[in-house]
Design goal:
single chain, alpha/beta, Rossmann fold, 7 strands, disordered N terminus
C-alpha cells in the first residue's frame, strides 16, 4: 500500500487494513478476527491445525478478505512462509494481534523441562519472532499496530502456572521495549491482559476450580471473548494512536491494576 500517513500513523485514505491474528481459529483470537472482519478489514488467521472452531460455523466469511493459514510459530521457516503468503495476497501486515498460546499447567516440582520450554517457546519466543517479522514492513510504511495478548496470570502468579506466568509476564517487558524502539515510526505496541474468559481453555478446568476462580472476580462473571476483542479493536483504532507501551487489563477487576 502506498498511502501517505499523518502524525497518527493512520493511512490518509479510507481503505481496509491488512490484519494478522495468530491463534485465530477459536476463542479470543476468533473473536478478534471477526471484529476486524466486521470493520471491513482483510484478516489472516493462523493456527497449528487450520481447523476452525465451532464459533465460525455460522460466520465463516469465505471471501477474499479472509485467509486461514496453518503455521507453527515455533518454526521460523513457517513464520516466514506465512507472512509471504499474506503479503502476496494483500500486502504488508498493518495490524498484528499476537494471540496464540498454550498451557502446560502443573506444579513446579512436577513440571518437566519440556513443559517449561514448550510454553516459553510458544507463548514468548514465537511472539518475538512474529512481531519482529511484522515490524520489518511496518518500519518501511511508517505505521503499524501490534497488540500482544498477555494474561492476568502474569501478575497474579496462579499455582501450577509458573511457565505460563513467566511467558506472559515476559511479553509485557518485551512489548514495552519494542514500543520504545519503533515509536518514532508511528508504530504502537500494546498489551492486553485478559482475566477469566469464557473459552474452551477455561472450561477444561474442573467445575469446582472454575467456580472458585469466578468468585474472586469483583464483577462476578466471566468475560466473553468479544469483550477482549473490543479492547484489541480499540488499540488498533485511530482513537488509540497516542497509546503505546500500555497494559490494559480486561479482567473484571480481578487484578485491580497489578
Amino acid at each position: 500500500m502506498t498511502e501517505e500517513t499523518g502524525t497518527s500513523g493512520e493511512p490518509s485514505t479510507d481503505s481496509s487494513r491488512v490484519v494478522l491474528v495468530t491463534g485465530g481459529t477459536r476463542g479470543i483470537g476468533g473473536a478478534c478476527a471477526r471484529w476486524f472482519l466486521d470493520q471491513g478489514d482483510r484478516v489472516a488467521i493462523t493456527s497449528r491445525t487450520g481447523v476452525l472452531g465451532p464459533e465460525w460455523t455460522q460466520s465463516d466469511p469465505g471471501d477474499d478478505r479472509f485467509l486461514n493459514l496453518t503455521c507453527d510459530m515455533t518454526h521460523a521457516e513457517q513464520v516466514e512462509a506465512m507472512f509471504s503468503l499474506v503479503e502476496e495476497a494483500w500486502g504488508p501486515v498493518e495490524v498484528l494481534v499476537a494471540n496464540a498460546g498454550i498451557t502446560r499447567d502443573t506444579l513446579v516440582l512436577r513440571m518437566s523441562e519440556d513443559a517449561w520450554s514448550d510454553v516459553i517457546e510458544t507463548n514468548l519466543t514465537a511472539v518475538f519472532r512474529v512481531a519482529k517479522r511484522a515490524m520489518t514492513k511496518m518500519l518501511r510504511q511508517r505505521r503499524g499496530r501490534i497488540i500482544v495478548m498477555s494474561s492476568v496470570g502474569a501478575f497474579l502468579g496462579s499455582a501450577g502456572q509458573a511457565n505460563y506466568a513467566a511467558a506472559k509476564a515476559g511479553l509485557v517487558g518485551m512489548a514495552r521495549a519494542m514500543a520504545r524502539e519503533v515509536a518514532s515510526r508511528s508504530i504502537t505496541v500494546n498489551v492486553v491482559a485478559p482475566g477469566l474468559v469464557n473459552t474452551e481453555m477455561l472450561h477444561a478446568l474442573p467445575d469446582e476450580q472454575l467456580a472458585q476462580f469466578q468468585a474472586q472476580v469483583p464483577l462476578g462473571r466471566l468475560a466473553e471473548p468479544e469483550e477482549i476483542a473490543a479492547t484489541v479493536g480499540f488499540l488498533a483504532s485511530p482513537g488509540a494512536a497516542y497509546i503505546t507501551g500500555a497494559v490494559l487489563a480486561v479482567d473484571g477487576g480481578l487484578a485491580m491494576g497489578l
